[in-house]
Amino acid sequence: xxxxxxxxxxxxxxxxxxxxxxxxxLDKEYSISKxxxxxxxxDDANIVIEGTNRNNVSVDITRKVDVKxxxxxxxxxxxxxxxxxxxxxxxxRNNSSVNISIGYYSEEYEVILKVPQTVSLNLEGDDDxxxxxxxxxxxxxxxxxxxxxxxxxxxxxFYFELDDGDLEMDQGRxxxxxxxxxxxxxxKSANFTEIDVNMDDGEVNIETSLDDSGEYYFRSSDGRIYLxxxxxxxxxxxxxxxxYIRADDIFEYLKKDDDRSVLKLPNGNARVRxxxxxxxxxxxxxx
Length: 287
Prior knowledge:
Elements: H1 2-17, E1 19-31, E2 37-43, E3 46-52, E4 56-72, E5 75-84, E6 87-96, E7 99-116, E8 120-126, E9 129-133, E10 139-144, E11 147-151, E12 157-161, E13 166-169, E14 172-180, E15 184-199, E16 203-208, E17 215-220, E18 224-229, E19 234-239, E20 244-247, E21 252-256, E22 260-265, E23 270-276, E24 280-285
Parallel strand pairs: 2-6, 2-8, 3-7, 3-9, 8-10, 9-11, 10-12, 11-13, 12-14, 13-15, 14-15, 15-16, 15-17, 16-18, 17-23, 18-24, 19-23, 20-24
Antiparallel strand pairs: 1-4, 4-7, 5-6, 19-22, 21-22
């Protein structure tokens, strides 16, 4: 029995002292059409995509894994890239049987893409962080627990499906569709003609002008909605239960009941609808 215990201890000690360091590197250029779509699927990566005056896509991906401890199995990680009908598809393939019970695990995963400014993006991930700069096409992101930052993105079609992550945009126009759970969204200097927001407990803070023919729809349970109007006006139809509404004096109440409030902002005919339960709603007008 002592021999078996000693042998087991020595084996485990030897395993605990083992270390694995793996690095994956991809640095290559790929073709894409001027108005093509870049499709990217990753997990746990720090992603930077920058629009430039180039006519192809520069792909620079680095992933480093450092494992110290008791582990079994192996990992097969690679990036698959496919050029198809003017679009580019970049997918992470990770077939892993690693099981770490005791020890240390570190992963550094960075994706840097330089693309033509006119392309569109279709991004899918989990626990990723995105920084998008100077993208002129449409942007679609479906990600869980991810933070997203947009700088100078001048497209007119934005779709975001996030869970617990945060979204920041320094401008926007055209159509915005946002489905967010417990995350927060901050958008300023926008000129949206259509907004469709579905949220739960998070916070959405949007600064935008209103278009006379525009439709703006917000659905929230216990979240917080801050809507700042920079130009235009219209009717704000708010259904609510125990929610809280605060509006600048320039907003005129046309109706105020226990479950519905209707307000009018002069100088426009846009339609803004807000359906809420216990949400807190703040309406502002700035010049």
